[in-house]
Write a structure and sequence with these properties.
Layout: E1 9-18, E2 21-30, E3 38-48, H1 49-52, E4 62-65, E5 67-77, H2 78-83, E6 90-96, E7 99-104, E8 109-114, E9 117-122, E10 127-140, E11 144-162, E12 165-183, E13 186-190, E14 193-201, H3 215-223, H4 242-250, E15 251-259, E16 262-266, E17 269-283, E18 286-296, E19 299-308, H5 310-314, E20 320-332, H6 333-342, E21 382-395, E22 398-410, E23 413-423, E24 426-438, E25 441-454, H7 455-461, H8 463-468, E26 475-488, E27 501-513, H9 520-525, E28 534-546, E29 549-559, E30 562-571, E31 575-584, E32 591-598, E33 601-608, H10 620-635, H11 637-640, H12 642-657, H13 684-697, H14 699-712, H15 718-726, H16 729-751
Length: about 750
């Protein structure tokens, strides 16, 4: 010590040995008791970690084993070490070992490093570290195993300024010949991995006045707000281990990942799965995906985009944000569903890391059953924007080639926009949504356009249509169909019929009806050449679905030797009520036919033709308006809300549907249950003529006809006027009687 109190220490040589550690060192320390001592040290040490750990406190159940050969030479001030500034410092050293084992019993974590060789040297403002290992093995209990082979690493320790503080930062560039990960019964490996990783100590932000929140934090919290709700158990859960989350609270990671070819193997997914490329950047809260390419069985996918909100999502308190572009040459959904079903409850029987003895290709042509699909719940903790394109998609017996769609998922609502697909059923364009707010609030809507569709395939694709209108199942030919509708759905994925509101527009040419069924009563009456109806030259039908019934607006069609106009109602309870007017026929008198009753118990009667001189009313403007409104509400579902959209659409549909279905019958002339003989047809014209004269003499009927014709020219409240003038309660009573008769017959059959 000099007269000013400065203490300097010089050690010419120090030899020390305790169980587990031997040291041979020399050096000097200038201003030992000062604020910034200066160290000059040289040391050689041999350490046996197993013995040395006995002298250290057993905090966290940490133990270690292995022999270390340590070399160190340093010339630096204490301030340089504390601030990670090494401009005028000189530090150099190395650590070499054959094997190091570390065990953390509290976290059930074991790490084994084979032949680690570490060298470090100081540069201007950092310490550079080179570390090579033959392999590293990390095991956490029996569920997690990770390995890296032939690792070559270079790192840099420096400091950066955050919130006015100098915090340490460690940059690592790691290249491995092989990475392997096993979790549960699943294993994944890649042939090469190039990783750039930075770890930065989190700095504590400066204190703010009580209650004040930074705008950036307020925006992040608002964006990641998550309410579990009734379907919380259906949300996607990915929780990190507590030791990892504790580490991430202290250190912030970010970097870049470049993986080469690899594999994924799991008996729970017994398809051969290969990774071809993975490139992206990441931080603690997000992943920017440049390239992802993989295949599984006969399916493949390429992806790019961003995943955000990872930190709060993995803690179970936030929403995972996805913004991805997905591209595929083929998606075999049938194969994937069949493989996942076969892998339920699978156990790990692998004998090696790359064992794929369970892999099979027998599901490539699998057929899946969709009738027993349970309730599908949209996750509430996912906010996704996806651009999807696929050359070919296999689902059930539908082959889609190609497919493109914009997918939005938010607030337990799934939205499909600009969907375009070409299938073996026809070409389809669609916007749609599906919402699962709660078990009592499940709804869906679609604005769908199908062209070049097989009538048979389209009808049989929707079993409820075939059950509601059995005669339609005999149609053959190509159809174009437009459907705009919203509805509620129950927990068995069935449409709640009273809530179904929408419009349907169907058109087709050169259609065939192979089996007329009970409609042969009509074809025989009209002297069809083909009693099974046969060819329909052209068909254009507009209909409204509302209040548990299908209201078919007046339309024309050409069948056999006839030109006809038809309109009517089909109730979802099986009731029906149609009117057919002959516009062109071999008969001298153009007459009408009324069909009413239930699907299995109906009658028809002949009377006056309601549509004459080609005056069949058109409802194009009203239908267009409803269709546009439903389409707009589906596209804006996240702006207007699901409930508001459904109420608005229901009102629009109701405005043009009203009390439809109550078609006024003409005066009955001939009951369809008494089939006419050939001789009776000779009397048909005169009989119809007499009936027509009788009706024409009735002043009231004449007045109604005039008002009806005038109403056909109206564009506002057309249907309401039409119904108020033409519908009578008499037909309701007839239909009710036939329905009761049908139910009695069914009950009698059950008793027998």
């Amino acid at each position: 010590m000099d007269s000013k109190g400065r203490v300097d220490a010089v050690v010419d040589r120090l030899l020390a040995s305790i169980p587990g550690l031997s040291v041979d060192a020399d050096g000097e320390i200038a201003d030992l008791l000062g604020k910034d001592p200066h160290f000059k040290i040289g040391a050689v040490a041999d350490a046996e970690l197993g013995k040395l750990m006995r002298f250290l406190p057993d905090e966290g159940g940490i133990s270690a084993a292995g022999d270390l050969d340590i070399r160190l030479k340093a010339d630096a001030y204490l301030s340089q070490l504390n601030q990670y500034k090494f401009r005028n410092a000189s530090i150099k050293g190395s650590i070499v070992s054959d094997r190091v084992d570390v065990s953390m019993r509290g976290d059930s974590l074991d790490v084994n490093a084979y032949r680690p060789d570490i060298e470090f040297v100081s540069n201007v403002d950092c310490i550079d570290v080179d570390m090579d290992l033959d392999s590293v093995v990390l095991a956490k209990g029996s569920n997690l195993l990770a390995k890296a082979r032939d690792m070559r690493n270079c790192g840099r320790l420096t400091s950066v300024e955050r919130h006015g503080q100098n915090v340490p930062r460690f940059d690592l560039h790691s290249i491995s010949d092989r990475l392997f990960l096993k979790t549960g019964v699943s294993r994944m490996g890649v042939e090469s991995a190039d990783v750039n990783l930075a770890l930065e100590k989190r700095a504590r932000p400066p204190r703010r006045p009580h209650g004040e929140m930074p705008d950036s934090l307020r925006r992040r919290r608002a964006a990641s707000r998550y309410v579990a709700g009734e379907f919380a158990d259906k949300d996607i859960k990915v929780k990190l281990d507590s030791s990892i989350t504790a580490y991430l609270k202290q250190w912030s990671p970010y970097g870049r990942l470049d993986l080469g070819r690899g594999f994924f193997a799991s008996p729970a997914m017994p398809l051969r799965t290969r990774l071809y490329a993975f490139k992206g950047t990441f931080d603690a809260n997000s992943l920017h995906l440049d390239t992802l390419a993989l295949s599984s069985g006969t399916s493949d996918i390429s992806a790019s985009g961003k995943v955000g909100g990872i930190m709060r999502f993995t803690r179970g308190r936030g929403v995972l944000d996805l913004d991805l572009a997905l591209d595929s040459r083929r998606l075999n959904i049938n194969e994937i569903i069949a493989a996942l079903d076969a892998g339920k409850g699978a156990e790990d029987t692998a004998v090696s890391e790359d064992d794929e003895s369970f892999v099979t290709d027998r599901y490539a042509d699998a057929e899946v059953e969709t009738s027993d699909v349970g309730l599908i719940v949209v996750p509430g903790n996912i906010d996704a924007t996806l651009a999807v394109r696929a050359d070919t998609v296999d689902y059930t017996d539908i082959v889609i080639s190609p497919l493109s769609a914009a997918v939005r998922m938010k607030d337990r609502t799934l939205q499909l926009l600009n969907t375009s697909l070409s299938t073996n059923l026809g070409d389809i364009e669609a916007d749609a949504y599906y919402s699962t707010k709660s078990r009592r609030d499940i709804s869906a809507g679609a604005n769908l356009k199908v062209s070049r569709a097989s009538a048979y395939d389209l009808i049989h694709l929707i079993p409820s249509v075939e059950e509601m209108m059995p005669a339609i199942k005999s149609f053959e030919g190509d159809l174009a169909c437009e459907l705009s509708a919203t509805t509620q759905i129950d927990t068995m994925m069935n449409v709640v019929m009273p809530s179904l509101d929408g419009v349907i527009r169907v058109s087709g040419k050169d259609l065939m009806v192979r089996d007329a069924g009970n409609l042969r009563k009509i074809t025989r009456l009209l002297l069809f050449k083909d009693k099974n109806i046969g060819r329909i030259d052209d068909l254009t039908v507009d209909a409204v679905v509302h209040d548990s019934k299908l209201e078919v607006f007046p339309f024309e069609l050409g069948v056999d030797r006839y030109r006809m106009a038809l309109h009517g109602m089909q109730g979802f309870d099986g009731t029906m009520n149609y009117h057919l007017s002959l516009l062109k026929s071999p008969f001298l008198i153009l007459f009408g036919i009324n069909m009413y009753g239930t699907l299995d118990n109906w009658r028809f009667s002949l009377g006056r033709a309601r549509y004459r001189d080609g005056k069949v009313p058109a409802f194009t403007q009203q239908m267009d308006s409803v269709q546009v409104n439903i389409g707009r509400s589906i596209r804006d579902i996240f702006k207007v809300g699901v409930d508001n959209a459904r109420k608005y659409n229901s009102k629009n549909v109701s405005d043009i549907s009203g009390n439809s279905g109550k078609l006024r019958p003409s005066a009955p002339m001939l009951d369809g249950t008494d089939m006419m003989s050939g001789e009776d047809f000779d009397k048909l014209d005169s009989l119809l003529f007499e009936n027509m004269l009788h009706e024409m003499d009735a002043a009231l009927e004449s007045e109604v006809d005039e008002i009806i014709e005038e109403s056909f020219l109206q564009t506002q409240d057309l249907i309401k006027e039409y119904e108020s003038l033409t519908y009578q309660k008499g037909m309701d009573r007839k239909i009710a009687r036939l329905k009761e008769e049908s139910e009695r017959k069914k009950a009698a059959k059950k008793k027998k």
